[in-house]
Amino acid sequence: MLAGCRRMFDHVGGHKTLQDMNRFHRANTLTGGSTIPSLVRVARSIDQRTLLVAVFAVTLALVTIDFITWVELDVAAIFGLPLLLVGPTRSRRLLWILTALLTIATFTAYAVQIPAGAFSLKETFFVNRVLDVLELLLIAALLHIRMIAADKSDSQARVIARQNEKLEAAKISRRLVEVQESERRTLANALHDLVGQKLTALNINLNIVKSESACAMTAQSGTRLDDSLKIVEETIESIRDVMAELRPAVLDDYGLTAALRWYAEQFSKRTGVATTVIEQGPGRLPVAAEEAMFRIVQEALANVAKYARATHATVTLDVTAQASCLTIADNGFGFDSTVPQQPARDRGWGLMIMRERAAAVGAELKVESAPGQGTRIIVTLRNRAP
Questions:
Q1: Which structural domains are found in the chain, ordered by start?
Q2: pLDDT for res 217
Q3: Whole-prediction pTM value?
Q4: CB-based contact 133:104 (threshold 8 Å)
Q5: How far apart (Å, rounded) are the C-alpha atoms in residues 171 and 165?
């Protein structure tokens, strides 16, 4: 068979023709001829499991043909087909395993079919096989680099997609906060203009009736009228408290520090938890930031009253040219902040709401706590460069 093959190649130009054919196939392989992209596009459209089966089937068939016929075509061009089919799987381990098997098969086919005593390092078919193996390794190396580049590209695309999702979520959260604050402002104004004014008018009318009917009024009627006036006054106070919770006017008029001092005073009276406010650094923050930080303080102090069993709380606002830092600290029981806290039906939502409010204005919220050591909630808002 070997003699017949050699006579055939000598008939068409001998070893020179064979080397020319090899150079043609190598050039086509290395320059990425039109055949390779077509194979890759077809391979990508096939199911991965089917692709792996096809890879091994094609490999086995080509190796078998090489063993049986030993037709000396460019082994790198033929055996490169399974490598190209492996490419879309992006399995670098499978790529090099298949490359090693094809390399072994290439030399095994030559060793089996070469006549005894005919081997020589300068023998043409052996040299061609060595060059074919080098080309196989080069193809595998190029595919390896391509797989790494594709993996990096996909990883970067996933990172960009996650960043875009976070940006969209932040925009939605910011918009929801703006809508919520607008609704709070509208409701507070409606309570003031409708309910508050009518209660005030009712209070005035009752006082007029009391003064005009003082002489003719019985003691029982006077007592009932006094009770009615007291109820009206308490209702007016309750409406004012609700309005202040919805939208404290002091926040719009005097800024965050004044609003925090007012709220701390109200909180201390209501709960008995001594609360102090410390301001470090003058200047007002953007409206959205002041609103978010005020709501965070409200939620944090509500958690202090509900769960911390604290006797003292401190709210510190530190404003510098680089950043604004808000800290709410208490001397309560504390908790293990390293353990993820999942919101339950009746608790655990406050911290999540605070995080969302901080994220909506581009701030970072950090919780520091330990059992028996109280809790610190730190909100940091980096000032944007002008």
A1: 2-161 (no CATH), 251-386 (3.30.565.10)
A2: 75
A3: 0.53
A4: no
A5: 10
